[in-house]
Each structure stands twice: as structure tokens, then as C-alpha cells.
């Protein structure tokens, strides 16, 4: 039986963190067993908002490949490659741009929000590339005729726009070239940052993916707890404690007991953080060790990406020929 095909990608925009893993990558590791998966390091997408400084781009690409492999993605089972290395991504994005109404792009919910938020960091996002981000995203997916896309519920609007582009293309050229990709939703819950805000590199509130035990412990010590607790014997409120949020994810066997003791003032914040650090380091030990080993194998990482690129190009070239034929531009 043929498996359905998944496409997904991530921007190499800085050091990967534990929130990225819990929200997306951990789900990819599970999906690889049930789907034909194509995973791309989407460096062209990174340029839509970070075009002014590309000094770390190649290093970020390499580090992201290491993160993916250390998390458990199998380079033989999946196609893993760098987006810009397969030129058909840019080519199809250009062709799709010819038929995509401007109003569709301007109504994307996150468009104005991102411009406002990132402009505070000195970034000018009033560019053709940033406005056309959804077109490039759609091209990534439909180039491989993917039928499934793993998304969070907050990304549904982006995927629906891709489906609208598919319907418009198929209608204009009177041929069912592309399937309409459907969402694969993850049950994974995101992790808050150590300061209680969304975990984000821009806030410097992350726990790096594959961090050493010492680094994990140091970041946990910085976590925000119940501000009303002054002494160990003070009764706490775990519902507003970041440490407790992590305990629910990484220490399920003890979380109820920890909650009870916190509310009764029988366990202090320092002890609670120590317990969490020990649990997290046990659970993440294999990932850390694999990451350390892979970091010493740059040739292997390059070979994995080149192998994935060749496999992706075979599919992309075949489908691109069909797309051009439908548009009479071949």
C-alpha cells in the first residue's frame, strides 16, 4: 500500500530550542513511520525576514540538520534536504505568483502582525519576498504533490491558502495537477519560555535543543516560579509556576505529588527545580549524546543533505515538467 506523502520545513534562523522539538520535530519523528516524508531546511524562507544578515545562514543550516538527525529522523526513511538546493522551489513559486491575487496575500492573518512585531527589531519587511511568503510555502508543498502537512491549529489559515492556490491552478489550466493537501494536527503542547512568555530565541528565554546537563540545569534555575512564595513553608500555586508546567511534560510520574506538596508548602522551589533538571537530563541524555557525536561528523551531515537533495530533485523535476506542460511554458 502506498503511503500518503508529507511535506514540511523549518527555517534555519538560529539555534533550535526545546519548544521547537516539542511543537514540531518530535511529531515529525512519529510521522516518519506512517507517511512518506519530505523534510526541508527552508533557507529561502529565512531570507524573507533575515535578508540583511546572512552571515550565520550556512552554520544555521548545518546545525539544524544535526538537530533533526539527533532527534531521530532517519535519512534513509525520509528525504532531508536544503530548500535552495532544489531550484524548482523558486521556479514554482514564481509561476504560482503569476496567478495568486494580491488580496489573498494581504489578508493573511500573520502578515501585518509580523511586520509590526519584527519592525521593532529594526527589520524592514515591506518587501515582495515577505508578502509572497505564502506563495513560496505553497510551492514547497505542492511541488511534491504532498497530500498531508503537519501543522499547528494556528497555521490552518496558511494551509487553506495553499488549497485555494491549488484549486485556482487546477481550474485555470483545466487539469487536476495538484491534490489539495490536508492538515495533520499534532496533539503536542507547546512549552512556555523560562520567563513565562512564548519560548522564542528573540526573547532569550529558551532551553536549547540538545543542551548539556549543565546548561539545562542553569536554564531551569532561571525559571519563574510563584512570586508569592518567599519561604519553603509558604503554600504555593503551581498553576502560575513555569517549573510546574515543565513537570507536567517531563515528570508525569511525580507531577501530582509535586503539586500536592507545593500547595501544602512541603517542597521548595529550589528542590522542585532540581527534581525537574534531573528528570529532563535523563530523558534528553540520548539526544545530547547523539548531537555531540554528529557535531564531529561534518562530512556525514553534508552527505545526508546531498543524498536528500538528489532524491528530492527526482520528484521535483518530474512534477515540474507536468506543471509547465499544463501552463504551456515548457
Radius of gyration: 22 Å
SSE run: EHEHHEHHHHHEHEHHHHH
Give the % helix.
Answer: 40-55%
Structural class: mainly alpha
Report how far apart the termini are. Answer: 33 Å
The overall average pLDDT, rounded, is 93
Give a description of the structure:
The two termini are about 35 Å apart. The protein is mainly alpha-helical and about 325 residues long. α3 packs across α13, α8 crosses α9 and α10 runs antiparallel to α13. The chain is built from 14 helices and 5 strands. Helices cover about 55% and strands about 5% of the residues. α9 links the parallel β4 and β5. The strands form 2 sheets. Strands 1-2-3 form a 3-stranded parallel β-sheet. A two-stranded parallel ribbon has the order 4-5. The mean pLDDT is about 95.
Keywords:
about 325 residues; mainly alpha; three-stranded parallel sheet; two-stranded parallel ribbon; about 55% helix
Set out the fold topology.
Blueprint: E1 5-10, H1 18-31, E2 36-41, H2 43-50, H3 57-71, E3 79-82, H4 88-99, H5 102-106, H6 109-119, H7 128-131, H8 133-142, E4 148-151, H9 156-172, E5 182-185, H10 213-221, H11 242-250, H12 255-264, H13 269-295, H14 298-327
Parallel strand pairs: 1-2, 2-3, 4-5
Q: Short summary of the structure?
A:
The chain is mainly alpha-helical and about 325 residues long. The chain has helices at about 20-30, 45-50, 55-70, 90-100, 100-105, 110-120, 130, 135-140, 155-170, 215-220, 240-250, 255-265, 270-295, 300-325; strands at about 5-10, 35-40, 80, 150, 180-185. It is elongated.
